[in-house]
């Protein structure tokens, strides 16, 4: 069985000091490919042999573009629908890890990028015909007015071809305001362009105004209950127009340690939640994208043995996706890179759990 997942978004050059150094401490740095859609495709493409991925984007054909292309190709991401240009530029982000009481920091330098300047209608979204899932991030919509228009075109094309669209809200206050994000997303929701919406408790509060008292000091069992309240409120606020609502649940104990879970509300009725996992952070970036990839994989029918069976009930598939996404998020936070390792599903279920023994 084969499945096809398409993503639309900007590829970033993620520039970071080596290890836990701060900018200005040293000049040793690493540049890796990043970007929400690329992260999701890199992860979901490795879950089972039958999954093919394709990225729609625009990049400058310079030395940075070559570096980013080679980084993405390691993950077998299809790039036949990348528009290459000699003008504009490739976007960058600058990352500094946190440690102890010091929070991590990320900054963007992507204004006027090839993706941000791409004109409406410049992309050929007909590749979506026959796809099994489409992924887009709120970050892409926030890059420019042109990106927002192109996002509408992509989502409308997906709907035309009956392709389920997955959106991660991924609100970034450095890119747009809550009012701008709310207006754009509500318009898309009103047109029923999303099959699944993925959010966090922070984005639910900031963008949609849904606040149920989520507090890291509460036990994880209470946070899961709070999540159910948030998802029901979101379902009501969006008029039941999104079949699958998902929220990642992160109980942050310190900057290096916490508990992770995620939950979903299906059709406004069925609530399912993954078992919590403890996690340790070496590199926080890419955790939410990994969870999104797991959820999409579960939706497609990826099983814990890396087989694909899309005939199992949706509730079971989404629960598997939540369990898988949690494991993927835990793994990516121990690796330096947004993309992280590309493992098959069975590797995540084998290696991430309660066992403290070395697998030999």
Protein model, in words:
With 360 residues, the chain is an alpha/beta fold. It has a single domain, classed as 3-Layer(aba) Sandwich (UDP-N-acetylmuramoyl-L-alanine:D-glutamate ligase), CATH 3.40.1190.20. Helix content is 34%, strand content 23%. It has eleven helices and 14 strands. The chain has helices at residues 36-44, 63-73, 114-117, 138-142, 145-160, 178-190, 201-208, 220-237, 287-300, 314-332, 345-351, and strands at residues 3-8, 12-17, 29-34, 51-60, 82-85, 92-96, 105-109, 133-137, 165-168, 196-199, 244-254, 257-266, 270-273, 277-280. Strands 1, 4, 5, 8, 9, 10, 11, 12, 13 and 14 form a ten-stranded mixed beta sheet that branches. α9 packs antiparallel against α10. It is globular and about 50 Å long. The model has no long low-confidence stretch (mean pLDDT 92).
Domain unit count: 1
> In angstroms, what is the radius of gyration?
19 Å
How many separate helices? 11
Order of helices and strands: EEEHEHEEEHEHHEHEHHEEEEHHH
Summarize the topology.
Elements: E1 3-8, E2 12-17, E3 29-34, H1 36-44, E4 51-60, H2 63-73, E5 82-85, E6 92-96, E7 105-109, H3 114-117, E8 133-137, H4 138-142, H5 145-160, E9 165-168, H6 178-190, E10 196-199, H7 201-208, H8 220-237, E11 244-254, E12 257-266, E13 270-273, E14 277-280, H9 287-300, H10 314-332, H11 345-351
Brief overview, please?
This protein has helices at residues 36-44, 63-73, 114-117, 138-142, 145-160, 178-190, 201-208, 220-237, 287-300, 314-332, 345-351; strands at 3-8, 12-17, 29-34, 51-60, 82-85, 92-96, 105-109, 133-137, 165-168, 196-199, 244-254, 257-266, 270-273, 277-280. With 360 residues, the protein is an alpha/beta fold.
């Amino acid at each position: 069985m084969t499945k096809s997942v398409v993503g639309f978004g900007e590829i970033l050059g993620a520039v970071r000091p080596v290890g836990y150094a701060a900018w200005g401490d040293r000049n040793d740095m690493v540049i890796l490919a990043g970007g929400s859609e690329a992260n999701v495709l890199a992860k979901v493409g490795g879950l089972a042999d039958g999954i093919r991925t394709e990225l729609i984007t625009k990049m400058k054909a310079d030395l940075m573009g070559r570096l980013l292309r080679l980084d993405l190709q390691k993950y077998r991401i299809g790039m036949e629908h990348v528009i290459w240009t000699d003008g504009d530029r490739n976007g960058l982000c600058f990352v500094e890890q946190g440690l102890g009481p010091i929070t991590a920091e990320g900054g963007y330098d992507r204004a006027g990028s090839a993706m941000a300047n791409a004109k409406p209608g410049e992309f050929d979204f007909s590749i979506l015909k026959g796809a099994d899932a489409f992924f887009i991030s709120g970050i892409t919509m926030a890059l420019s007015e042109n990106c927002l228009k192109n996002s509408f075109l992509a989502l409308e094309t997906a709907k035309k071809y009956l392709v389920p669209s997955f959106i991660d809200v991924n609100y970034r206050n450095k890119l747009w305001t809550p009012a701008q994000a709310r207006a754009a997303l509500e318009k898309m929701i009103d047109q029923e362009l999303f099959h699944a919406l993925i959010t966090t408790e922070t984005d639910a509060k900031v963008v949609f105004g849904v606040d149920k008292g989520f507090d890291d000091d509460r036990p994880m069992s209470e946070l899961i209950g709070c999540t159910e309240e948030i998802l029901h409120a979101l379902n009501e606020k969006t008029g039941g127009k999104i079949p699958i609502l998902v929220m990642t649940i992160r109980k942050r104990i310190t900057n290096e340690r916490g508990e992770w879970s995620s939950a979903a509300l299906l059709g406004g009725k069925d609530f399912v939640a993954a078992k919590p996992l403890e996690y340790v952070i070496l590199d926080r970036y890419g955790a939410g994208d990994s969870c999104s990839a797991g959820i999409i994989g579960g939706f497609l029918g990826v099983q814990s043995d890396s087989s694909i069976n899309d005939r199992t009930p949706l509730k079971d598939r989404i629960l598997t996706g939540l369990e898988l996404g949690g494991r993927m998020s835990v793994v990516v936070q121990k690796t330096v890179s947004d993309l992280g390792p590309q493992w098959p599903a069975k590797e995540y279920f084998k290696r991430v759990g309660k066992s403290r023994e070395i697998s030999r």
